Fold these 3 entries.
Entry 1:
Amino acid sequence: MKHTRIYLYSFLVLLFSGCSHQLSQQQFYVFGTLVGVSIWGLPTQQANEAINVITKDLHLMHHQWHAWNPSPLTDLNQAIAAGQMGTLPDPVVLQKAKNFYTQSDGLFNPAIGQLINLWGFHQDDLSDNQALPSPEKIADLVALSPNMDDIDIEGNHISSHNRAVQLDFGAFAKGYAIDLAMNKLRQLGVQNAIINAGGNLKIIGQKGEAPWVIGIRHPSGTGILAAVAVSGEESVITSGNYERFREYQGVRYSHIIDPRNGMPAQGLTSVTVIARSGALADAASTALTIAGLKHWHRIARQMGIKYVMLVDEAGTVYVNPKMAERVQFPSDKKPRIIVSAPLN
Ligand code: AMP
Ligand code: MG
């Protein structure tokens, strides 16, 4: 009897500890989107403490890089507009932005904050039917050619030769933030996790014996376009014209602006990039949206990207061969798929 009780007790302890080591999940709102964090294989309390740490970190990053609410970035933008020197708590973010700018032939250009603002995207609520900017104003800003080469970084001191530069990190802030948050989780002993920032994800490890399986949102806004299994350390980032846009007289204007003509990018409804670095995948997904069907391949190669999936306005899907091997479509909703030449 005694033995049976001990056996039963040990069984319950095992069962309980097994449960508390499985999946811990939390959701919170930051970067203007719902962020979900899942951790596999740690005691619930340790996992929750780790999530609490990165929740604070992500809120801090969101504040530091906010492009229109008062923030260290808006302070720097004011200094640049006044022709003065400024600072940022983490100038590494600027060096990364400079590299991505160069690699993307300037299509990823976080110095065009004035253009983004001119199109009305520096506000939380985009629902009003606000008139479009005048072609003259757009042309004036394009002519000033604000770009990342205008910026000099010396230690913590940042300056710009060009006062028209206004920084907006919206195209890669979430990707970089999930890189930093994932590094922090690792430091806190986490080996298997997923951070999902509004459909932009980074994973490490796997979910028990199996890889994490990620759903890529359909650009129509409903349901899943495709699924992909990820493990090790990977980021899956999607840029879509359905995410943030304005509508004026029945026409949709995307929040992704082509720095060459100051106009919202057209042609692709969604671009997904998988890369180890979230910052790189995020910058690339934005750049490839602007590059369009004609130039995405070259820009992806320049940026060192290995996995790309693009969707055009007709719903046709374009993938490089390596991405084609990984991505799975629902059998009842298989789109037309075109496989490109290899990327490398
Ligand atoms: P994403 O959803 O990652 O493609 O980022 C879009 C956001 O990036 C926009 O809301 C703008 O804040 C910013 N943005 C728009 N166009 C560009 C561009 N050409 N280069 C860099 N950032 C941009
Ligand atoms: Mg992006």
Note: Residues 278-302 form the longest helix (25 residues).
Entry 2:
Amino acid sequence: MHDIGKKESADSRRGIALLDNPVRNKGTAFTVEERRELGLEGLLPYAVESLERQVERVLGQLEAKPTDLERYVYLIALSDRNETLFYRTVMADPARFVPILYDPTVAEACLTFGHIYRRARGMYITRGMKGRIAEVLRNWPQRDVRFICVSTGGRILGLGDIGANGMGIPIGKLQLYTACAAVPPACLLPILLDVGTTNAALRADPLYLGLRQEPPPAQELDELVDEFVEAVQRVFPGCCLHFEDWKGTDAIRLLNRYRDAILCYNDDIQGTASVVLAGLTAALEIIGKPLAEQGILFFGAGSAGIGIANLIVAALRGKGLSLAEARSRISLFDIDGLLEPSRPQLSEAQKVYAHRAAPSRDLVETIETLKPTILIGVSTKGGAFDQRVVEAMSRLNERPIIFALSNPTDKAECTAEEAYTWSGGKALFAAGVQFPDVEMNGKTYHPGQANNFYIFPALGLATYAARPRLITDECFIVAAQASADQVGVELRGRGMLFPSQANILETEITTATRIAEFMFEKGLAQAEPPRDVRAWIESLLYEPHY
Ligand code: NAI
């Protein structure tokens, strides 16, 4: 990823400016000849080092940092200095670095964004640029931008509206495209669409870097986004728009507005739904039961719950069920109880799941009445799956499937230990956070984390290669199946529902290959179909070396 103002010019390819050019800088790895030719003599210490030796130094410095936030600040500064070294370091061990570059550390980094800020990265488009957005986008030095991750900062991880401080999210999310799936970093552009923030404390912080206004009403926001989307098409043709962490209602509305018109997706909605479907698919394969025969109860009926429910419906339709049959398999329960037709003020998206049933505000009662085989928590209500809930699910099912997806950890509906203990080891469990392994009766359970990084980097890689016109729900269903297919027997035996994190790049390539094959099969892809999709994708991967 390039910094603002890092337009490639002859000047930035030599001398001191070269050491300040993160894409070309090699630091102490410049050879004696290069130093002589490029005007670097005297600007570097004597030693000429290999990339491996530089990585060794980076790891040592990271080790010495007392907190992950400091590791984050260090890594971001490293990527500003030397992109190759940064990616060489993080790609060597993505499982270790993803939690630093992204969730949970990035949340902390966003909170203190105005305070830890060093230099601009990506682009900031503000309301005042209306009418000139295309012109502003042209200030970006790269023309071949293939992905823009755009956020308003309107709903960041469990932090709510943090406005321009949310910039850490598009930056981190795009770094994961490369760190996990080797998508070339030069084609990635993070953008913060600064429409103001509802967060009064932030607006009052003298170090806050964003617009100090309330966000506009929906219609004005939509007009601004329309211009932004149109400008992106014009300035960066073929670019995929990845919407991330917008306020829930904006996210759903805007996805519906653009999903059939332009190359775009929303990771909070579609990526999340896909990774949950991946976990469910793996769980059902473990117990040998088809999705079509399950009863699914959601605890929480917000944007995550509805998004997951809708993708499950799409998956069931793909298995031959009618829309009504597919929807009948799913019920939702929220802060006011079970969604049923007598409930006032249900949104259109919720109404389709409000099946005829007696009103209930008691989760255990609802479980006993509806007899779900799968219980999915997306409520932000920590501890809501208490012993009674887990025991009720375990009484009704030989192997209850219980996902407690709310995060951060204190919001999880139950912990892994509680799910395994209260179900007597029967539950197939996944969470939104990574819980430690649980030892019970001489057996080790390995709880899965429904982490979107199993899906979106692979989708990004497939999109990078196949250049689809659109990304459809089916692409996310294919991704979910590909993820489930990579959960090996040994992992399944320990209750794990997601692939191993030992070789993330391999996993992402396998998933990307399946998605790209699907894109070719369905006529979505615009690239020339290759003979061997996997080999072709492998030939396109970014490799961090000098
Ligand atoms: P949201 O605010 O749109 O919806 C929350 C829903 O939970 C609402 O329907 C609300 O009525 C319900 N709720 C709140 N308190 C409740 C209570 N005491 N009892 C019953 N229902 C209650 O939030 P959103 O975006 O749907 O996210 C929900 C949670 O899911 C968040 O904690 C988020 O972190 C988590 N999540 C996890 C993901 C993952 O694991 N990959 C991905 C996306 C979201």
Note: The first helix runs from residue 15 to 19.
Entry 3:
Amino acid sequence: MLPPTYSKLGKDNLIVFLRFLIAMFFSCIINGNNLCSNQPFVSSTDSNIPLSLRALRLDGYLSSGNTEAAAKDFGNMHHHLPSAVLHPKSVSDISSTIKHIFEMGTESELTVAAKGHGHSLQGQAQACRGIVINMESLQGAEMHFYNGEQPYVDVSAGELWINILHESLKHGLAPKSWTDYLHLTVGGTLSNAGISGQTFRHGPQINNVYQLEVVTGKGEVVSCSDTQNADLFYAVLGGLGQFGIITRARISLEPAPRMVKWIRMLYSDFSIFTKDQEYLISSEDAFDYVEGFVIINRTGILNNWRSSFNPNSPLQASKFKSDGKTLFCLEIAKYFNLDDTDTVKQKVDVLLSKLSYIRSTLFLSDVSYIDFLDRVHISELKLREKGLWEVPHPWLNLLVPKSRIQDFAEVVFGNVLTDSINGPILIYPVNKTKWNDRTSMVTPEEDVFYLVAFLSSAMPSSTGTDSLAHMLTQNQRILEFCRTAALGVKQYLPYYSSQEAWQTHFGPQWSAFIQRKSTYDPLAILAPGQQIFQKGIAFS
Ligand code: FAD
């Protein structure tokens, strides 16, 4: 439809013309466009945006408002204000912004950080005076499912895992490898590893991706996989955001189970506890999920479990006294469908009979698959209600080689930590055979290593054992012990503030890491919050 020309407009035609304009306006809205998307948004109206970026033409928008939100993360300890936040509506918004900054060269100090759900701990998704890209703006892009022999889903990297779970279940499918908490983005966990109780079987999330779309530090949009641009593919997986911004990912799926038999039991002897954990991760057909946690100086543990689990022997369980002893809880799960209820129960009974836990402490619960996977969100809601979610989180995550886990436990659980850390301490083994060693992620050298996660919450006004200062000191003591005892520990979600420390962390992989950096982000524009490289300073 062409508009009538103005010169021919009489009164009637003027009405027709006005109707035409109104129709065009609504048609643009209905089609999901706005009039601006035909004439791309020019950000020059925002006078706080760095001058050099004001001419960028984008489908989304750059904003200097609400930069405070981009200077916050789950750790709640580091706050660096960016100059502006990009809310991209397309991959080309990301690539043209980075390309523009790349072309300005080292004269510009601008850096760029992708922000997923901002659940980093020490400012890793922040960019001091730079640009933060809010990856969640890309959320809502359609997920494409392929339901063949090796099913997968194509998703935006700004998508939350919980949304992927909900959509996949509609197709009777689900991703294989998870994190304990699902309100994290695909790009955020793939930049680290994505470890949970399924890792021993499927490897971490970075080993369950077939293909990625990445915007490099030069602004190029590159598709990559194990067979196409493989070096970039493996660089980006576990690459701490250093080599490119992941914009899309193809995630491997499996048929989703309906139900989960979720089981907990206690041990008082650490070596028996780890022997059972190691046995479980070595058997292919035992449980689908294996984790564990440490309980220090707590009473009434089993009473707390009763709200969501049933004791196997209620009378005996009621007689059990923890009395502040250090205990170790094995947490395991078996997936099943309702048709298999009886056979699964028999199978689980046989498997449990091979373990050496304290018999009176066996607790079980049958829950839906979704409730099991989204379990931490329930705790989040409770903590939010009490105002205890948005507090500082001085978390420390370590990967400890199997051969040194006893030494580690003896000193750390027996000596350094004498009291609860005001949060869980997770501990469970994974096996390296399930990890692809071509990714950027570094692990200890042994075939089996333990994830030990100290997930503490600090009380803002406290000066006691639950204060931030106390918890940070405790973390330092643990790290210092690992270093002096030469345990061969690696940090997970690593945090270092000097390049020497990063070099030590990467060890023999450091030269490959530098090589990849100079290939894909030679000006060190990306992910400055990791504090590995600095723009304008040569790599070494
Ligand atoms: P952000 O914090 O926003 O970003 C993390 C890093 O990745 C930053 O450097 C950022 O620049 C970069 N980044 C973000 N998106 C992209 C992208 N699209 N492309 C390139 N780089 C990008 N981890 C586990 O492995 N297992 C767990 O069980 C687990 N449980 C957790 C529970 C809670 C409550 C929390 C808060 C965290 C947990 N984590 C766990 C850690 C979590 O995986 C990481 O903190 C992860 O980075 C958070 O994802 P995010 O979307 O918030 O990323």
Note: The pocket of flavin-adenine dinucleotide is lined by residues 73-74, 113-120, 124-125, 135, 157, 179-181, 184-185, 187-189, 191-196, 240-241, 245-246, 376, 493, 527, 529-530 (CB under 6 Å).
